[in-house]
Amino acid sequence: MIELGCNAPDFTLQDQEGEVHTLSAYQGKYVLLYFYPKDDTPGCTKEACAIRDVFPDFKKVNAVVFGISADTVASHKKFAEKYTLPFTLLADPEKKAVNAYGVWGLKKFMGREYEGVFRSSFLISPEGKIVKIYENVKPEVHAAEVLEDIRAL
Q1: Cβ neighbour number for residue 99 with a 10 Å cutoff
Q2: pLDDT of 1-41, one tens digit each?
Q3: Active-site residues: which are they?
Q4: How far is residue 122's CA from residue 124's CA, in Å, rounded to a whole number?
């Protein structure tokens, strides 16, 4: 179980270009890990585009943004190109990170049950600690909310 103040679980995942990233390589910066259900779906597109639109503000506060889903590198590449996303999308088809952060589980949609990624985010301090957990994220306002929190820290 992930809790505030604990060390953020490290991971090694490929981005939309096939480059490998580890969380530990970003010590010294704030990191927003935002987990989302699926590339190019309405809510996920709204969330990604809202982050895209304020991305220069994330850079100003020395923050790195990673979008993570269980989609493939190829799916992420198509999604990032379609919406001109300037941040990194990490592919987790083996569900290592989504399980480590506890955001994979049983979901319900229109009376159907299935397993998937919960729309959740984690703000990680420059020291690698979890400083904020966002559950049931509202895609349109999430980026502004995270920026406000970083500025307040």
Answers
A1: 13
A2: 688 999 999 999 999 999 999 999 999 999 999 999 999 99
A3: 44
A4: 6
CATH domain 12-152 topology: Glutaredoxin (3.40.30)
- List pLDDT tens digits, range 79-129: 999 999 999 999 999 999 999 999 999 988 788 898 999 999 999 999 999
d(CA 126, CA 132): 13
DSSP state letter for 138: -
Task: Describe the strand order of the beta sheet including 120-124 as a list of residue ranges.
Answer: 20-22, 12-15, 88-91, 63-69, 30-35, 120-124, 130-134
Residue keyed to tokens 């966002």: 134
Strand-pairing partners, residue 134, are 121
Number of Cβ within a 10 Å radius of residue 26 = 17
CA 133/CA 9 separation, integer angstroms: 14
Where do we find the tokens 């304020």?
A: 54
Q: Give pTM, 2 decimals.
A: 0.94
